[in-house]
Amino acid sequence: MNLTGNTIFITGGGSGIGLVLARQFHQRGNQVIVAGRRKANLDAATAANPGMKSIVLDTADAASIAAAVPKLIADFPALNVVVNNAGIMRPEDLKQGKVADAEAIVATNLLGPIRITAALLPHLLRQPDATIVNVSSGLAFVPLAMTPTYCATKAAIHSYTQSLRYQLKDTGIKVLEIIPPWVATELMGPVPDDPRAMPLDQFIAETMEILSTGAEEICVQNVLFLRNAAKGDEAAIFKTFNERIFGTGQTVS
User: Fold this and answer.
1) Domains of the chain by start residue, with CATH
2) Residue 166 falls in the annotated catalytic set
3) Which of 36, 110, 233, 247 has a 20 to 30 Å separation from 46 between CA atoms?
């Protein structure tokens, strides 16, 4: 992926991975538009990065996407990169038989990227060079049992990304996947004080370096043990991984 000269739209760009990724692209001379539900976060992001733009968008709401995309294209006709980053992660006790959290996670993490991609594809196909970047997770490959629907949506995003890449292989659109490990963000509350969580700035720096190589999957070193679990004893890795995380009361992104 060319890291300069783009017009880049990033969902979930008001905090966490999305915000620091947006900052990095902005510093490289790209026009960056961040989107999210919390206007205060977006305003803070644009104030701290003069020239960065923002749009309020709820990726869980089909009507919000349908209303935002035409304005986005009209205001930024050179838009050629979409980063589907917005996501939510919640613990679930499946024994309780409740589905409200699961429905919200599916709407945000899975239907959101699918709807945004579908809405923007006609525009991206008209660009001489375009890129779709989907953010999944190492948990797409080894699930964390305390967050079952989050992991399931990230596994679905990985599968969807593979199919999207194949269907677009004869077009000018590249399809990439960023696969984060446990990163120190506020995805489930205060930033975890755990040395096993990869510092956010370090994750973004390594991610930007890999993006510049043209790789289709962006896997930092810390996530490779999850991404490649199927090549080893996957059941044993799942058991050890979950026992280790459950023992701390922490989670991963």
Assistant:
1) 7-246 (3.40.50.720)
2) no
3) 110
